[in-house]
Write a structure and sequence with these properties.
96 residues, 5 helices, 61% helix
Amino acid sequence: MNEESYPQFYVLFGGYLNQDSDLWGDTLEQVVSCFKGDSSTEEIAETLREIDKYKKEAGENLDQKFYEDYGFNFHPKLWGYTTASFFDELKRLLGD
């Protein structure tokens, strides 16, 4: 994953949603809440834009692209989501 193209993804997946995510919480909601608490409103808005950009660029290959970019450290299926439903839930949690 290119940090320059997705700087907020770099923070979110590098610091929160990874192999050590249990340090931030036991659920996606808890982990995202920590990320939100540490982020400015501008950073949250940028994360929401990055979600849309990533989904658009990946197109029909969303699952494959996400696995290639983040699968070693984070996999939505382990949290009970498909890649698409994970992004939908992430957008909902960030928007709350």
